[in-house]
Amino acid sequence: MVHSGYRGRVREPGQQQYQVRFGWGIAGARRVAADAHLLVWVDVLPEGPGVDHRTIGRQLPPGPAVVLGHLGNAAAVADRVTRLQAGLGDRCVVAVVAAGTHRAPAFDDVAEAAGESADVPDAPDPAVEDLLGAGAVVDALSAVGIDHCSPEAAAACAAFTGLRGAVRHLVTASETARELGPERARAALAVGPELVEVRAGEHSARG
81-94 in b/e burial notation, b at 16+ Cβ within 10 A? Predict the structure, then answer.
């Protein structure tokens, strides 16, 4: 069966033919958020306290509204999407983006010692906690009927659903959690279901 995104025209690039998309980091957001209505930034274990969400919003591509997603508020994200979709009177395109972790390559120290700046592109290491958090969001969207997922989003969802019973253990045992320490990891996992909006979108609902 030929997918409608390929039928009768040139194949659409990347994940553009899908309603629910998935990417890693700022660079991934720039790829998958084109024409999206909502971007869900998933950072389950923020690397530093007091993360400036406005800074994140400025780094992400313009256009979609931006909300923070994590393991505790996936249902709230799905509710936001259904309400946005009703307001638009059309399907709501969602870009789910996992933050990942950023570790400076070893040569950065050498460059700094030589008085040079290291030019490191935004290519985060995958983080198991953010993969599972993104999968939780995609799963919650599927539960309310928003399930036209890219293969990348479907794979993240399968990781979450397949490991659902072990998610908390996997997150607290992850490399990021060990670096942060048990108290900060437990505090991050205890964050409630409230939805934090980082930035309003540029898309308007139909009158």
Answer: beebbeeeeeebbb
- Relative to beta strand 94-98, strand 20-24 is parallel
- Residue 14, number of CB atoms within 10 A of its CB: 13
- What pTM value is reported for the model? 0.84
Contact 62, 202 (CB under 8 A): yes
Query: What single DSSP character describes residue 207?
Result: -
Average pLDDT, the chain: 85
Average pLDDT over residues 108-134: 70
Q: What is the pLDDT, as a whole number, of residue 120?
A: 46
Which pLDDT score, from 0 to 100, does residue 56 have?
Answer: 84
DSSP string over 19-60: SEEEEEHHHHHHHH-TT-SEEEEE-SS-SSSS--HHHHHHHS
CB 138 within 8 A of CB 154: yes
In this structure, how many other beta carbons lie within 10 angstroms of the beta carbon of residue 53?
Answer: 18
pLDDT exceeds cutoff 60 at 50 = no
Q: Kindly report the backbone phi and psi dihedral angles of residue 113, in degrees, each rounded to the nearest multiple of 5, phi listed first.
A: -65, -30
Task: For residue 200, give the 3-state DSSP assignment.
Answer: coil
